[in-house]
Each structure stands twice: as C-alpha cells, then as structure tokens.
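User: Just a sanity check before I run the rest of the batch. Below are the structure tokens for the first item. I only need the designed sequence back.
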C-alpha cells in the first residue's frame, strides 16, 4: 500500500511556517515536517529591530502561529534541528544528530545570515549582530546601559538599530563607506533625508569611511579604528552590513546557485523535487523579467505559500510587486518595487518633502517602477497597481496630491 507523501520544509521561520500553513489550507493530507535550527517556534523578524528591541512590544507579537497551532494542524515541527545534508537522488535529508528523513517534496527556506565583519578584532566581546530574537534581546540589554555605540553600516538594520539605541539614550556614531545612508537602496537624495532624520536625533555619521580594526582591553571592544585613521571610543559595536543567503545545503546538494538558490517562477529549483522560497531564493520574476532575490518580510510571507501550492502541483507564477517597510523614530515608510540603481531614469515627488509626508516615485521611460510613501498611508496598494500596469503616466498628475494615485 502506498504511504502518505512527506513534504519536508527546512527552515522554520516565516517562510517555512506559512508554507506549512498553506499545505494544510489547500487540503494536503500527507505528512508535513518543518525542521528549524532555532529553538523558538517560527517568528517574524521586523519587531526585532523595532518595537521588541525598543521594549514597546511584548514577545508574543513576534510569533507566526499560536503555540498549539502546529500540533493542531498535524504539522510535525521540530526545533533545534539543523539539516546538514540533502540527498536529492535518495530524497532524504540528514540532520546534525545523524537522523535521516525521507521526503517526496522538499522546500528549502533556510533564509539568510548577517554578513560578518572580517577585520582584526571582529571577534571581540561587545561586537553584536542582529538576526535572531536572542540577538535583539542582547542588543536591548546592551542599550539599556546607555554608553557609546558605533553602528557599522547605514542600511535598514543599521539605521533601525541606531534609532533604538538613541531612544535608549546611547550616543551613536554610524560608519558607512557610501556617501550617505541607504545610498544603494533608495538613492542619494532620499538616503540623505534618512541621514538628516538621524542627525536631528543626535546621531553622528562618518560617510565615506569603513572600519579597519576593533581594539580594546581584555578581549572587549573599546575603540573602533576607521579607514581614515580615526579612533572612536565604543562600548558596543553593532554590525549591519547586509545578509548572505544560506545556500550551503543547496550548493552541497548540487543545486544551481547564483546569489541564492536559483528557482523558476514556480519556485522550483534545478532539482525537480526541491523548491526554494524566502530570503534564500533567487527566482524568476515574470513582472520584472529577471531573477530577483528579495530579503523582505512580505516576500517570506507570500513566497512560502506560493511554493507550497507549487509543491502541490498547482500552476504558480510568483510575481508580487516587492514590498518593504521601515519605522525609525516617528517616521514610517513603505516601498513598493525595487528602486535599484540603473533601473530608473527619473524620481518625482508628491506631497510635503521638508515635512516628511510625501511619496517618491521612481520612473523608467515614463512609467512608475517603484514608489515610497513616507508618513502617508493607505496608498501602497495603489502604487503597486500602478507599477504592475507599466503604463506611462502624466508627471503633473502623478505629483498632484489632490489626484488619487488610482486615477493618475
Ligand atoms: C532584525 C530584522 C528586521 C527586519 N525588518 C524588516 C522590515 O521592517 N521589513 C521587511 O520587509 N523585512 C524586514 N526584515 C527581513 C525579513 O525579516 C526577512 O526577509 C525574513 O525573515 C525572511 O524569512 P525567511 O523565512 O525566508 O528566512 P529567515 O527568517 O532567515 O529564516 C530561515 C530559518 O531557517 C533556519 N535554518 C537555516 N539553515 C538551516 C538548516 N540547515 N537546518 C534547519 N534550519 C535552518 C534559520 O535558523 C532560520 O530560522 C528584517 C530582518 C531582520 C533580521
């Protein structure tokens, strides 16, 4: 008698947990096994650099599901279990404690890890990263003491963490080799707006500099040496220099790797039994006409379910307009689309830029390719629809705040 099929998910975070949920919602009656290295049940990471780090939100906000949800939906959640090898031919995975688990279909949702500093002194105590809930708790405890923080990297994680450190009363200096904050993410003009926001809150920036060494007494960090030779006193160094996809398992299994695990629009990898989603996957995006790897919450939320449907044999073309949000001090923003350098030829604004209540639109050939609403709400869906439509817009109507975006 044939046994029930086993659908195995490696990576028990937002993407993996939402995939498991979708398998059950779609009526899959076989075994669903969800394996994760971390010991917490699946949780969402955005609060770790915002409300939870600031002590304004309770830990309960982070979880994807209630504790009993997994057993209640017959999802075999195994925490503290690291998968060390995948055998695509035998269709088995091996765990760190030597167990072999067979699968019929496998979803890799192993996410990404912080890029590490590789300079003398990088392993000193007091050099902190932020990815997991424990990291957030360590940072919160470190910030509570006040003191001098040096943030390495003026990207989203670096800036959100800087805001939390300032709100806790720390002195913060941010070191960034680019000419301003978020330079590659949103361009110089808008990046400078974020830098100004932080300056108004007392943050010092050292743009055009990198960190060359961390020094200090007794194995602890006490001083940050920059590429210009400056020595900055530091009780804590927070490193936010990007993330790298956790491709090791997939690479060892012989899957195609290129800035993540390569997948088609149905999130199938180069092996017919293996799928990839979330921060890990570099999947073909039909709307954008190229492969993209998106390290955003909404992508983990939506690509897990898309991969699950694909595993069930449904026709899937995963192509949402990428979406991202950030909160820093009293500024909230959402970005739709990917305003990467070279993908646009014009930036237009509507609303009050000095008052930081506006929308920025990035255009290519007269069509909107990305939009960022800053302290303006309930417009992201319309911006996404505009991007999806690919139609040329009238700049005067686009920048007129009295014309609803849906009618531009
Ligand atoms: C602090 C922080 C704040 C963020 N804030 C925002 C935000 O404001 N807005 C936004 O859009 N995005 C934000 N993001 C990004 C967002 O959280 C990620 O895009 C999302 O977590 C990706 O989910 P994932 O499930 O693909 O991967 P991950 O969340 O990285 O999870 C992968 C999981 O797989 C596990 N794993 C890895 N290898 C193995 C293995 N071999 N065996 C078993 N388990 C394994 C890992 O331990 C991990 O639990 C933030 C990220 C961080 C770190």
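Assistant: Here's the designed sequence for the first item:
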């Amino acid at each position: 008698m044939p046994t029930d099929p086993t659908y195995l998910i490696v990576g028990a975070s937002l993407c993996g947990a939402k995939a498991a949920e979708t398998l059950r919602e779609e009526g899959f009656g076989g075994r669903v096994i969800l394996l994760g290295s971390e010991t917490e049940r699946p949780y969402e990471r955005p609060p770790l650099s915002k409300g939870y780090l600031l002590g304004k939100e309770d830990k309960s906000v982070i979880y994807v599901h209630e504790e009993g949800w997994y057993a209640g939906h017959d999802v075999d959640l195994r925490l503290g279990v690291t998968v060390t090898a995948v055998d695509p031919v035998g269709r088995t995975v091996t765990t760190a404690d030597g167990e072999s688990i067979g699968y019929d279909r496998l979803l890799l949702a192993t996410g990404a890890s912080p890029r590490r500093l590789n300079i003398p002194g990088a392993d000193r105590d007091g050099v902190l990263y932020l990815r997991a809930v424990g990291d957030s708790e360590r940072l919160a405890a470190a910030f509570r003491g006040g003191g001098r923080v040096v943030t390495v990297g003026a990207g989203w994680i670096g800036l959100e963490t800087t805001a939390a450190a300032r709100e806790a009363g720390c002195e913060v200096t941010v070191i960034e080799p680019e000419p301003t904050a978020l330079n590659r993410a949103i361009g110089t003009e808008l990046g400078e707006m974020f830098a100004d926001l932080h300056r108004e809150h007392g943050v010092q920036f050292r743009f055009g500099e990198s960190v060359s060494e961390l020094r200090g007494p007794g194995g602890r960090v006490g001083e940050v040496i920059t590429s210009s030779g400056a020595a900055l006193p530091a009780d804590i160094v927070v490193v936010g220099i990007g993330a790298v996809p956790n491709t090791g398992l997939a690479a060892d299994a012989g899957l195609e790797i290129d800035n993540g695990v390569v997948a088609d629009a149905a999130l199938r990898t180069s092996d017919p039994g293996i799928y990839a989603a979330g921060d890990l996957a570099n999947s073909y995006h039909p709307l954008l006409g190229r492969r993209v790897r998106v390290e955003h919450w909404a992508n983990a939320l939506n690509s897990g379910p898309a991969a699950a449907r694909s595993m069930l044999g449904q026709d899937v073309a995963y192509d949402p307009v990428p979406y991202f949000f950030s909160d820093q001090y009293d500024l909230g923003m959402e970005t739709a689309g990917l305003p990467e350098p070279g993908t646009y030829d014009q930036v237009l604004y509507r609303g009050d830029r000095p008052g930081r209540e506006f929308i920025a639109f990035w255009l290519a050939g007269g069509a909107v390719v990305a939009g960022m609403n800053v302290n303006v709400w309930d417009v992201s869906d319309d911006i996404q629809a505009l991007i999806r439509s690919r139609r040329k817009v009238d700049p005067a109507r686009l920048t007129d705040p009295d014309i609803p975006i849906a009618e531009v």
